[in-house]
Amino acid sequence: MRRREHYDALVIGAGAAGLMAAMTAARRGRRVLLLEHGEAPGAKILISGGGRCNFTNRETPAARFLSANPHFAKSALSRYRPADFIALVDRHGIAWHEKTLGQLFCDGSARQIVEMLLAECRQAEVTLRLGTAVQEIRHDGRFHLETAAAVVSAPALVIATGGLSIPKLGATGFAYQIAAQFGVATVRPEPALVPLCFEEPELSLMRGLSGTATEIVASRGKTGFREAMLFTHRGLSGPAILQISNYLQAGDAFTVDLLPGQDARALLLAAKRARPRIALRTALAEQLRLPQRLAQALAPEEESAPPIGETSDKTLSALAERLQRWCLTPAGTEGFAKAEVTRGGIDTAGLSSKTMEVTAVPGLHFIGEAVDVTGWLGGYNFQWAWASGFAAGQAV
Ligand code: FDA
Description:
By secondary structure, this protein is an alpha+beta fold. It is about 30% helix and about 25% strand. The protein has helices at about 15-25, 45, 75-80, 80-90, 110-125, 175-180, 200-210, 240-245, 265-275, 280-285, 290-300, 315-325, 380-395; strands at about 5, 10, 30-35, 55, 65, 95-100, 105, 125-130, 135-140, 145, 150-155, 155-160, 185-190, 195, 215-220, 225-230, 235, 255, 325-330, 330-335, 340-345, 365, 375. It has a 7-stranded antiparallel sheet with strand order 19-18-15-16-17-14-20.
């Protein structure tokens, strides 16, 4: 006979959102059991932000989150703000700094964030059980979870098992299975904040430049990101590309401006006047300040090719157009194996924006990346995990 245990709330998934929900509920005096199938909590926090965890952003307006309902995230984000998480980090004496674009990172290590959340859980007396898979969930008003060692039950269940990105870190489609079990709709989960793959003819150029980075603006429609782009052996990556990937559906094109804030045509014509004897590739590298390898790839002329002074204005205009409005259609993405997050997920139409509770199933909550709310790159996804976790933790 498996032992039976009773709690006020069960939380599945000890990632960012689950740890926040568990500690918030337990601080309110709730008896909370936090279940994690992996051997360690907060695996994604540990590798985030290059090991320094970009734990929030100074500003997190709802416009920086994607969802079928762009208003859904507002309520939770307004009740748990970046300043609340910063205050928590400060209380634990964790040093941090702003890197760029409002992005806040630990000075030391992402491990400090995991330890802080675990310390909060311990202090609030959350029961944390690692290496524990949930075999079955039954519901008769209370939720009963079968694990190998026990049957645990509670009137509230919080699903914080994240999305499908990076399966080797323990990502599963568990949240979507539970949604299906309880008749909750989902928006198709897809890789997001993900490197893009290309086919010929672009691929040869990109592969040849693999490892080269340059500042660009990647844009689609009115949405644009001025950040670094990295050429890879499969196509393009880097922050600007990850950001624009959130806004692309299969087959969509986007544009790259390789000279943000500059007028390539004017610069090329000025170079033609000032240094007519230099090669085009030299003009690109020295006058337009493009990385050397990129300049060579864009103007791969022979030694005998005419210098810029003998290149027609029409040719220079066409090159300028390509430099500033390079229109690209990816063949695909590098998929969930490389995606930083999953877009789509639990349809917010079935959830309360205040409590993350399923309207049709009282007591059942979905939080964090499992939900159809996806942030930009830059600390937004953790802020959503903290805010949605706090909302559920306040409610159970
Ligand atoms: P998360 O995935 O963190 O946690 C889910 C937990 O549930 C995991 O511990 C998993 O093992 C567990 N689980 C899954 N299935 C289960 C099951 N069936 N039973 C029990 N447990 C189960 N964001 C950001 O804001 N700043 C950053 O710097 C970064 N950096 C970054 C780097 C990399 C490489 C990646 C992949 C992602 C980021 N992110 C990020 C995104 C961020 O990590 C992500 O949005 C949050 O971790 C989501 O938190 P959740 O708690 O929702 O899911």
